[in-house]
Amino acid sequence: MTDADGPSPNAAKTGSPVVMVVAWLWVAVPFLYGLYQLAEKSSKLFE
Q1: Is the pLDDT of residue 2 over 70?
Q2: Distance CA 44, CA 24 (A)
Q3: How far apart are CA 40 and CA 18, in angstroms?
Q4: pLDDT at residue 8, rounded to an integer
Q5: How far apart are CA 32 and CA 44, in angstroms?
Q6: Of 17, 24, 33, 36, which sits most exposed with the smallest number of CB within 10 A?
Q7: Membrane-spanning regions, if any (predicted)?
Q8: What is the dihedral sign for C-alpha 6, 8, 9, 11?
Q9: How far apart, in whole angstroms, are the C-alpha atoms of residue 24 and residue 15?
């Protein structure tokens, strides 16, 4: 089997755990901040 046949079954295990944590934080922090802002502003609509 060559590399042209497709990704190996172990391809998902090649990343460093530190890189994975940083990548998740890079996405999760702005997402959670946006949800917080949405909840804060939408709560004013129901006052």
Answers
A1: no
A2: 30
A3: 32
A4: 59
A5: 19
A6: 17
A7: 18-36
A8: negative
A9: 13
CA 17 – CA 30 distance, rounded (Å): 21
CA dist 4 → 7, 13, 16 (Å):
8, 19, 24
**Segment 12-43, tens digit of pLDDT:** 566 799 999 999 999 999 999 999 999 999 99
What span, in angstroms and rounded, lies between the C-alpha atoms of 47 and 29? Answer: 28
What is the Cα gyration radius of the chain?
20
DSSP 18: H
Token output for 36: 């917080």
Read off the tokens for 9: 């079954």
The whole-angstrom separation of Cα 37 and Cα 43 is 10
